[in-house]
Write a structure and sequence with these properties.
This protein is α/β, with parallel strands linked by helices and 466 residues long. It folds into 2 domains: 153 residues, Aspartate Aminotransferase, domain 1; 272 residues, 3-Layer(aba) Sandwich (Aspartate Aminotransferase, domain 2). Helices cover 36% and strands 15% of the residues.
């Protein structure tokens, strides 16, 4: 039986820089000046503290970003003055809370250049990815067993997976964009395949062209690697998926804080990111989905606030996005995230991207001069954000991180929820330095100097083996 393939509405072509990263006008803006960065830093209260007797240098933004005063105040003010249940009360306070919540949705939609009803609030990006994978699984159950699961969602049939279908990911993925697809493959009988990483940490384009084929139903890919900082060449991958009618799911957690993010221009069906990495609160994530896709997919969770009619035998569901937001939503978190969006828009995402370009070069060049330090993905020619993961010869990543912490420098250690990519590099863990909107060149220099002192601290001379 011939399968119906998904054919999305065509998006407006975008001018792009290498790596498939779309920027308005196709060019980078001027980097932020030192004075502008100092002004930004003054808005982050945590940066005024000391750690272990040193001024805090926060280089763990890839894990979670710090919050400016405007975000902290927005969430606090909402709780102090407007807190109430949304979309279910007739009193004034409920109306204010509902307006604030939906205004937040609109702010995020404008930030992404999409429609309000294409924005679903989740608890984090991990939940958003699980939502998509689970809903596709429910669609698949309904297609194979009429009357079950997606039986009440006939529009989901084009997205159903069957035995013999393929889900394609990459070796670069965070576990949150890998494990849900493993589970979906197990539930549906589909096969999970992956595009391998090259020695420099980029993707093999020739392998991608071989792997993405007529059986591919989903391509799930990171926009920016959380290990190397390299930007994925979406301009080479997405057309391959489009040619065979596959859904494209984008993990934008590491790109949303650093690059202009326009899902329609990137021609992806789904894009997700977490609020806490974009200077917003924890406990909230964003799922963008093409309207026709969200309207077709079955719900992920069930309960109140996502229904139109309920009897003792069945229920009918609201259209997207509310069909995916059952229960009491993330109210103050949404308001705080909207404040974070306004904050980065005030600075300008194009200028943030330009500044990242400068910081990335300084970070990589400085670390490359340190003897006994290996930068994972250093030779990757792709554009990158200001993030670097390193291995110090003879020193475990956790011990290396402790040396930096003793100097007041906060950096990440471990496998960063990307074990397959670390395994591809032949290591089990690394020390990751990741900049934020408030990072200065002087802070990077301090961090590079601290890295240079790691091996001497442990009595290791230049050239010692691991």
């Amino acid at each position: 039986m011939q399968r119906t393939r998904y054919r999305p509405r065509r998006s407006r072509p975008a001018q792009r820089l290498p790596g498939g990263t779309a920027y308005p006008g196709g060019v980078l803006a001027a980097p932020l000046t030192s004075a502008e960065i100092e002004g930004i830093r003054a808005r982050f209260p945590i940066l005024r503290r000391e750690v272990n007797g040193h001024p805090l240098v926060y280089l763990d933004s890839a894990a979670t970003a710090q919050k400016p005063d405007s975000v902290i105040d927005a969430e606090s003010d909402f709780l102090r003055t407007s807190n109430a249940a949304v979309n279910r009360g007739a009193h004034s306070l409920a109306g204010e809370a509902t307006e604030a919540y939906e205004d937040a949705r609109g702010a995020i939609a404008r930030f992404l250049g999409v429609d309000d009803d294409e924005i679903v609030f989740t608890s984090h990006a991990t939940e958003a990815l699980n939502l998509v994978a689970y809903s596709l699984g429910t669609a698949s159950i309904g297609a194979s067993s009429p009357g079950r699961g997606a039986g009440s969602h006939p529009g989901a049939a084009p997205f159903a997976l069957r035995e013999g279908d393929e889900i394609v990911v990459t070796e670069l993925e965070h576990h949150a964009n890998l494990i849900p697809w493993q589970e979906l493959a197990a539930r549906t009988g589909a096969t999970l395949r992956y595009i391998p990483a090259l020695d420099h940490g980029g993707l093999d384009p020739e392998a991608a062209a071989r792997i993405i084929g007529e059986r591919t139903r989903v391509l799930a890919v990171t926009h920016v690697s959380n290990v190397t900082g390299g930007v994925t060449p979406l301009d080479r991958l997405v057309p391959l998926a489009r040619a065979v009618g596959a859904l494209v799911v984008l993990d934008a957690c590491q790109s949303a804080p650093h690059l202009p993010l326009r899902p329609r221009e990137l021609d992806v069906d789904i894009a997700v990111f977490s609020g806490h990495k974009l200077y917003g609160p924890t406990g909230i994530g964003v799922l963008y989905g093409r309207a026709e896709l969200l309207d077709a997919l079955p719900p992920f969770l069930y309960g109140g606030s996502m229904i139109t009619t309920v009897t003792m035998e069945r229920a009918e569901y609201l259209p997207a996005p509310h069909r995916f937001e059952p229960g009491t939503p993330r109210l103050s978190q949404a308001v705080g995230l909207a404040a974070a969006i306004r904050f980065v828009e005030e600075v300008g995402m194009e200028r943030i991207a330009a500044t990242e370009h400068v910081l990335a070069a300084r970070l990589l060049d400085g670390l490359a001069r340190v003897p006994g330090v290996r930068i994972l993905g250093a030779d990757n020619p792709a554009p990158r954000v200001a993030l670097a993961s390193i291995v110090v010869d003879g020193v475990h990543a956790h011990d290396a991180g402790q040396v930096l912490d003793d100097r007041g420098i906060a950096a990440r250690v471990g496998h960063h929820c990307a074990q397959p990519l670390h395994r591809r590099f032949g290591v089990s863990a690394s020390l990751r330095l990741s900049a934020g909107i408030h990072t200065t060149e002087d802070e990077l220099d301090r961090a590079i100097d601290a890295v240079a002192g790691i091996r001497p601290f442990f009595g290791l001379g230049e050239g010692a083996g691991a």
